[in-house]
Amino acid sequence: MAEHFYYSIASGSSGNCGLYVSDGTAVLIDVGVSLRKLTAALAAFDMKPGELDALIITHEHIDHVKGLAMFLKKTEVPVFASRGTAAALTAKEPAFEGRLTAFESGDAFRVGETTVRSFATPHDAADSVGYILENGRRRFGFATDLGFVPQSAAALLRGCETVVLESNHDPHMLQAGPYPYALKQRVAGPNGHLSNPDCAVFAAFLADNGTRKLVLAHLSEKNNMPALALQQTKNALRGREGCTVCVAPRDCMESPVVLGEEGAACLVSG
Ligand SMILES: [Zn+2]
Ligand SMILES: [Zn+2]
């Protein structure tokens, strides 16, 4: 098993959860799955939830924290959330009081061998963030649930060799789809979710600035198709060598994405 990898356990509006492992440091990003599902996914890596070094949360929406109550009940793993996210979570569930380590959005902190840097994301949540995880020369970026990519986030994601980036919806499918008007406006708005074309434009910027691997994430079930998201970003990367793209499926990835290894296989689904 590779020492450095990212493995998506769930991605999309029904649940989000990803595992980052580097130099023996294991960080879970969001826990939008049941503890049972998390336990089963980690077993493939001979790991148990209690052995994780940290859980870092992007924001309080249910698809990112569905399994948090049980996770806190069954493990002693430190859980990090931005100040606003921690407050929103505790307001809803008083039992979380004292169990979350709050940080200021934009702050960095250390988990084992990894430096975790947060950045604000434009989203309809209290204090949502994305993350950069850095270990030596390896830089890994995570950005989902954002209406657009702000300059400040672009500056941090630039140069990350692996980036998990939201490719939420196809604008035409969204407009023609089943969502009520207000929800369509919210999803497409500046505090909603990143569309396939916006993802593709930013992907090209990343590829021009050193990104070697892209994982498209948080695809809408109703307003997107994996093949469509993949094609849009691949088209934008045409003519650029050396950047692979794959889609994080709704359920567990078939195999992890190896970090910091040229030409490593990347699952292409859809
Ligand atoms: Zn959200
Ligand atoms: Zn979400």
TrEMBL record:
> Which InterPro entries does the record associate with it?
Metallo-B-lactamas, RibonucZ/Hydroxyglut_hydro, WalJ/YycJ-like
In Swiss-Prot or TrEMBL terms, this protein is called MBL fold metallo-hydrolase
Pfam families per record: Lactamase_B_2
Where does the Metallo-beta-lactamase domain lie?
A: 14-193
Q: PANTHER family, alphabetically? A: EXODEOXYRIBONUCLEASE WALJ, METALLO-HYDROLASE YYCJ-RELATED
Give the source's domain of life in one word. Answer: Bacteria
